[in-house]
Amino acid sequence: MTTTTRNRWWAGAFLPANWDDLPWVSFLRPGIRIEEYRSDDSYVLRAELPGLDPARDVYVSCRRGLLRLHVHRSPHGDATRSEFHYGSAFRTVVLPVGAREDEVSATYVDGILEITVPVPGAAATEVAVTVADPD
């Protein structure tokens, strides 16, 4: 087992020891965590969004080559202590060139939102460029 110790010398100088419990530091926490990949005919984005009602709490839109994900999490019950993040979070990603924004589909299973965007043609390939010697 490996233990990682963070050197937060700066945190003690400016913030209290329990700074992570303060409500105003939510902007420092990661919003929506994603993973993305490209297949031959589509771009797929997966977002980790446990405990949401996709019909009520999740909004996905595409416009001008950008995919925008907006989620809102509301508190449930009367918790005496909660480390959950409540409120809104946004994420915008650039779609591949040629993405068919009008054919986007999404599914939500076991807390994972999977968005599929059709992209015609093969996935991008790497092209080697020869650099000429000026002599």
List the helices and strands and how they pair.
Blueprint: H1 9-14, E1 34-38, E2 42-48, H2 54-57, E3 58-63, E4 66-73, E5 87-94, E6 105-109, E7 112-118
Antiparallel strand pairs: 1-2, 2-7, 3-4, 4-5, 6-7
- Strand content is 25-35%
The CATH topology of the domain at 50-75 and 83-122: Immunoglobulin-like
Number of strands: 7
User: In which range does the helix fraction lie?
Assistant: under 10%
Roughly what is the average pLDDT, rounded to an integer? 81
- By CATH, the architecture of the domain at 50-75 and 83-122 is named Sandwich
Stretches where pLDDT is under 50 for at least 5 consecutive residues are none
CATH class wording of the domain at 50-75 and 83-122: Mainly Beta
Assembly annotation: single chain
**Topology pattern, helix = H, strand = E:** HEEHEEEEE
* Sheet with most strands: 4 strands, antiparallel
> What is the strand arrangement across the widest sheet?
1-2-7-6
Based on CA inertia axes, which overall geometry fits?
elongated
Query: What is the end-to-end distance?
Result: 56 Å
**What is the SS-derived class?**
mainly beta
Count of helical stretches: 2
Q: In angstroms, what is the radius of gyration?
A: 21 Å
Q: Can you describe what's shown?
A:
The chain has helices at residues 9-14, 54-57, and strands at residues 34-38, 42-48, 58-63, 66-73, 87-94, 105-109, 112-118. The termini are far apart. A hairpin with a 2-residue loop joins strand 6 (105-109) and strand 7. It is built from two helices and seven strands. It has 135 residues and is mostly beta strands.
